């Protein structure tokens, strides 16, 4: 189960216009400033929210404005962090409006949980690879509605039948006479037309934009340097601050000697908080020098002796007891008792940092009567709420400016950095930009949880699985981030990829135990639950194939008759990768298949393991069925990016603790895949008319087991704990 179902869990059942709610409740029109047409779009909410909005006069969720100059302005409820949202979502509007993509201009949506909540999450956030999934039908309907109203306005002006008119290239054409009129000239008239109860969406065979490789709208500004990320903003009079937080989570400041820091040229002031010290200066160089000159004595607090080993032991101990049942099929006990052979394994995945290229930063100006925030964040309403809570100001006194994000990966779904920046800014006269150093960013991240899994399976006389059991323990991010989504000891994120598998398993039982690590904050990390579960599931399935002495792809194909889309992507990936063809010594191919984020994906990795145990991913072949594709270039780019991200995690990713402290500090100790290590990547997209699936995260979870299984094929050594241990793979002399 994916996070798509959280709205129903958190606020009631989701309804859409297709389920009997009038389109008038979701689309309203009116005159925009300057005499244009403003189409207000509300994405489908849970019933209670929609009705509350009605009571207030139907507050919209997203806005499409058509000005007198014919330009379309889309107020974007999602954020751009490199995933291509600011191109693919405007394509939906442009397609149905019959305009060129370049005519659509974007504006950041302001924070407003009621107006801009993600329809699949129930909160204002960009995540879970669902921006396109959530916008697919509503935004197309918005474009089609605007088109219909423009055509009606033209027909009325010409006193002709609307059926004799059609929209094309930003204007309305009266086919019998050849008369045309541009949208800008019609916008004011269209604003006075009634909103149609129903609209006809374009058929896939008539698409002109959707499904074509559109050039990214945000690329030129990012290339010429005019794009503004959170870290780029410089309001007049801004000071720069950097900080040191307690090296142990939960620790406090005991004493500070700041004499040397104050003597650094450019340092303006030192701000001491309960658990952090900040240096405010004219520029980052001075702030860093001042920070290095501070002499801080810390009270490490209750977690001073915490280590990774302590966390792992607690998780291991927890899995000896029953957990919440996430899924059960058939009779696992009976099937296991009658099995011809049994396979058992324990898997572990480590804490992981986000390590975004743009480190955490936030610019704040706190005044007596208000607060202004400049930031790049995935959950804007939470930013506003955090600033309001910290300052004690009402929400309407907090203004938030959202900017492009230089890497989110779930880290910027959190507002801890905003809270910290506000705490510092409350001591500063004027605006202050708080920038975390790379060391601070890695050592005070909110980490992908550590998980511990116990698996067992029973095989029949042909080596096929007749029983599958998985019990795992780890943190639940949903329980903290969106408590209504955590029910009966379960949440849909933590279990995605462990349940509802693509395979036909007659007897299956999965349990989860929520165990929160002491003092260590956990958070969403690109592909989240599947990043753990798919590694475990696909590695263990590979173990079963090996135990049955069967080919890993053939073994899986035999279990996929009931999921033809999964079977098709696996067969395609195997064909394109040359599965079964001979490889050099200590080079192996590994496979994985998954259904995650409503997308079917198979990956085959080709990995070489040197005699000293170093693993290098040489080639990756990916076949994907993500339903209808809006921009195939974005799909390929997302998969390429996710494969790099996931390969990094498989080979190097690990956050460890000793004496309550994160041991990794920068990219020398928290290594990222280097450019010379990047594999050749092939992406094969299956054409489909199914609704779109998610794309931003799926590739991350799929690559990790493919790499691990390829290492087994190359060396005969099974990886049950990440990251790759080169020592264990070293060939004896």
- Number of domains as seen in the coordinates: 3
Fourth-level CATH superfamily of the largest domain: Aldehyde oxidase/xanthine dehydrogenase, molybdopterin binding domain
Tell me roughly what share of residues is in helical segments: 25-40%
| Sheet with most strands | 7 strands, mixed
Query: What is the CATH class designation of the largest domain?
Result: Alpha Beta
Across the major sheet, the strand order is 11-12-9-19-16-17-18
Question: Can you describe what's shown?
Answer:
By secondary structure, the protein is α+β, with helices and mostly antiparallel strands. It has three domains: 3-216, Aldehyde oxidase/xanthine dehydrogenase, molybdopterin binding domain (Aldehyde Oxidoreductase, domain 4), CATH 3.30.365.10; 230-301 and 360-435, Aldehyde Oxidoreductase, domain 4 (2-Layer Sandwich); 309-351 and 447-729, Aldehyde oxidase/xanthine dehydrogenase, molybdopterin binding domain (Aldehyde Oxidoreductase, domain 4, 2-Layer Sandwich). The chain is 31% helix and 23% strand. The chain contains 22 helices and 28 strands. It has a seven-stranded mixed sheet, with helices on both faces. It has a five-stranded mixed sheet with strand order 1-2-3-4-5. Helix 3 packs parallel to helix 5. The model is unreliable at 1-35 and 37-62 (pLDDT under 50).
Outline of this structure?
By secondary structure, this protein is α+β, with helices and mostly antiparallel strands. It is built from 22 helices and 28 strands.
